[in-house]
Design goal:
- The protein is of the alpha/beta class and 396 residues long.
- It folds into two domains: 210 residues, Metallo-beta-lactamase, Chain A, CATH 3.60.15; 128 residues, Rossmann fold (3-Layer(aba) Sandwich), CATH 3.40.50.12650.
- The chain has eleven helices and 17 strands.
- The strands form three sheets. The chain has a six-stranded mixed beta sheet. A six-stranded mixed beta sheet has the order 12-13-11-14-16-15, sandwiched between helices.
- A hairpin with a 4-residue loop joins strand 8 and strand 9.
- It binds zinc ion.
- Zinc ion binds next to loops.
- One of its GO terms (molecular function) is damaged DNA binding.
- Its main location: nucleus.
Length: 396
């Protein structure tokens, strides 16, 4: 049973732990009360460490071994089982759990992809709070999911995806509305095919809203995506999705410039083929008509934009702040939030910093061939206790 100690009040009433300063971790590990805690970094092998996973995106879970026990939200545990035979321990949402002696963890919804959480650790010996966000989005809606103003974490490990680009994005709702409004001008039942480009997990709000608005169902082109959708939507799956390409929606899990022409040819019998590309690296809504093909680009992200990030950091107002993206980001965010701290380090290495949007069709074919080879290799490796990482890397 979850303990009901200090952090339980986060969701009920005022909490104000006094500030305690302690040495800063400079490795992918957090040390609390002599226990090693490792988050989203499974290539670091450490005996007796506690491994936590914030969400089911490849760049966060790769390296998981069968022999590990992974702590994650209940949904992330379910999703992880599609890729790894590791043991999992589900941390219930918004309830402090004493997972090690005198250390509590609370999983707080991160508003990133389904199942994503931040981890708030509480050191009951030092009376210190440490918050690790993983990938997250702090918008107006998510601000209401916890009594954030009462969380005074001494250390913050934060997702700074759009810090350097200083991107300011329209809200997710606004972005979806623009897409739906444009679709309304072209959509004809049975004559319009709608393709949403997506990842193995994430951006569900876009295609779910389109499915509801136009009364269509989506066919996920990848078997893995089909599985993740069944796990995420459960009994609601049939309401939004079909397992074969028999309806008007398609979920495509591989980005690629020029791929639109493949869809145009594939669905030549339709009057209109619409391809929707939603990404935070897109600065503004735009569309392009190419004969029967309509391309819609919309700024949409499941990470904080620049302003949301600053709002969040200032609200938490930690003594120490570290980026989970890069050393440079740590310097910038410390300056911006007027924090001074000891030497800065990169907490999580982003191993595959590829801009998938710039991959052309030829390169994509190469990637698919590589993926097939990797899959074969992974089948052998899996027998040796290594997780399959043959997916597209989820960079958002
Ligand atoms: Zn992510």
């Amino acid at each position: 049973m979850p303990k009901t100690l200090h952090t339980a009040t986060l969701y009920q009433s005022n909490l104000s732990l006094s500030s305690f300063f302690s040495p800063t971790p400079q490795t992918p590990k957090i040390l609390i009360n002599n226990q090693t805690i490792i988050i989203d970094e499974f290539s670091t092998r450490c005996e007796n460490a506690f491994y936590f996973l914030t969400h089911f995106h490849t760049d966060h879970y790769q390296g998981v071994l069968k022999s590990m026990t992974v702590y994650a939200s209940p949904l992330t545990c379910e999703l992880l089982k599609t890729k790894s035979k590791c043991s999992t321990t589900a941390i219930p949402l918004k309830q402090p759990v004493e997972f090690a002696r005198k250390i509590l963890v609370t999983a707080i919804p991160a508003n990133h992809c389904p199942g994503s959480v931040m981890f708030l650790f509480e050191d009951l010996v030092k009376k210190e709070l440490i918050l690790a966000t993983g990938d997250f989005k702090f918008d107006k809606e998510s601000a209401e999911c916890a009594n954030w103003e009462h969380i005074r974490a001494q250390k913050l490990y934060v997702d700074t995806t759009y810090l350097q680009a200083k991107s300011i994005l329209i809200s997710q709702n606004e972005s979806i509305k623009q897409v739906v409004d444009k679709l309304k001008t072209v959509f004809k039942p049975n004559r319009t095919k709608i393709i949403c480009q997506t990842y193995a997990v994430g951006k569900e709000r876009i295609f779910q809203r389109i499915a509801e608005e136009f009364n269509i169902k989506f066919y996920p082109t990848s078997a893995h995506r089909l599985n993740t959708l069944k796990i995420i939507y459960k009994e609601q799956f049939d309401k939004y999705f079909v397992a074969t390409d028999t309806d008007l929606g398609v979920l495509d899990v591989m980005y690629g410039t020029g791929k639109e022409n493949v869809f145009k040819n594939m669905y030549n019998s339709f009057e209109k083929v619409v391809v929707i590309h939603a990404t935070g690296w897109q600065s503004k809504f735009s569309f392009e008509q190419r004969g029967k093909l309509l391309l819609i680009n919309t700024p949409y992200s499941e990470h904080c934009d620049y302003q949301e990030l600053l709002n969040f950091c200032k609200m938490i107002n930690p003594d120490e702040i570290y980026s989970i993206i890069s050393e440079q980001d740590t310097k910038v965010i410390q300056q911006l939030t007027k924090q001074t701290g000891p030497k800065i380090d990169t907490w999580i290495s982003k191993k595959n910093n590829i801009n998938l949007q710039e991959i052309n069709l030829a390169e994509q074919e190469e990637i698919l061939k590589e993926a097939a080879k990797r899959k074969q290799r992974n089948e052998k490796l899996q027998k040796l206790d290594v997780v399959d990482i043959s997916d597209v890397v989820d960079l958002e």
